[in-house]
Amino acid sequence: MNQFARYPSLEGRHVFISGGASGIGATMVEHFCEQQARVSFIDIDDVSGEALAARLTGQGGEVHYRHCDVTDIQQLRAVIEAAADEWGPIGALVNNAARDTRVPLKELDVETWDDLQATNLRHVVFACQAVFAGMQAAGGGSIINFSSPSFLRRSRDISAYSSAKAATIGLTRTLSRDMGDAGIRVNTVLPGWIITERQKALWWNPELEKQVLENQSLHQRVQPEDVARMVLFLAADDSRMMTAQTYIVDGGLV
Questions:
Q1: DSSP state string for the chain
Q2: pLDDT score at 195
Q3: Would you state the pLDDT for residue 132?
């Protein structure tokens, strides 16, 4: 990371990340620790979350993992409150937790739809609500919500997921006005095709990778680090007048 930017404003800042135990989330936890932020992160994968926290703590990072299922709003509110009690107001909130389950339209039922909205959209609203008072009292903060380019690409079999991710962009823009008077910025990040372990297990193959890379303007794999560096910038004071915006990190695929 030495060749990339350091952000003095992130040093000591309390950052809260959902879905931080693996994939892009874990990379963001690592990058914020390298910036000497205080990082609270949550997940349902306790094995990966505790291992990541132990490793980064051993390297001198200030990091705390807590178990939380983001579909349980009461639990989500409680862990956000506990994190703020431990390390003070949350200065940057990263709403990363999601699940891109694929369900063909003819197989989609009400229960699956509701579950995917709860996993991908509902918690974003209430996490933002939960940090509002603390950020307002501190004079401001930054919220980064995660969406997906899947609805822009018209991807198949993910109508519930894509609907939630498209709605996240509208939510972000609305919240930027609701929270702007308190000095809180709200932006959206859309990661491109990133080969996580989940994707490798479920649907990635060499033929698909070849197709994706050919269709990108930049013919290289998008890495979790590329997304993490965008999030660092949006969490730092360097982006202090940037809000209500949508940032796609996909090598020019859409």
A1: -TTS---GGGTT-EEEEES-SSHHHHHHHHHHHHTT-EEEEEES-HHHHHHHHHHHHHTT-EEEEEE--TT-HHHHHHHHHHHHHHH-S-SEEEE---------GGG--HHHHHHHHIIIIIHHHHHHHHHHHHHHHHT-EEEEEE--GGGTTT-TT-HHHHHHHHHHHHHHHHHHHHHHTTTEEEEEEEE-----HHHHHHT--HHHHHHHHHHSSS-S---HHHHHHHHHHHHSGGGTT--S-EEEESSS--
A2: 77
A3: 98
- Residues 157-202 have pLDDT tens digits of 999 999 999 999 999 999 999 999 999 999 999 999 887 777 777 7
| Residues identified as active-site | 161
The answer to whether residues 14 and 37 touch, using CB atoms and an 8 Å cutoff, is yes
Sheet with strand 62-67: strands edge to edge: 62-67, 38-43, 14-18, 92-95, 141-146, 184-191, 246-249
Structure tokens at 127: 């996490």
Q: How confident is the model at residue 2 (pLDDT cuts 50, 70, 90)?
A: low
pLDDT at 152 over 70: yes
The answer, yes or no, to whether residue 67 has pLDDT greater than 60, is: yes
Does 205 have pLDDT greater than 90?
Answer: no
CB atoms within 10 A of CB 54: 12
Q: Mean of the pLDDT values across residues 71-79?
A: 98
Domains of the chain (ranges; CATH) run 10-244 (3.40.50.720)
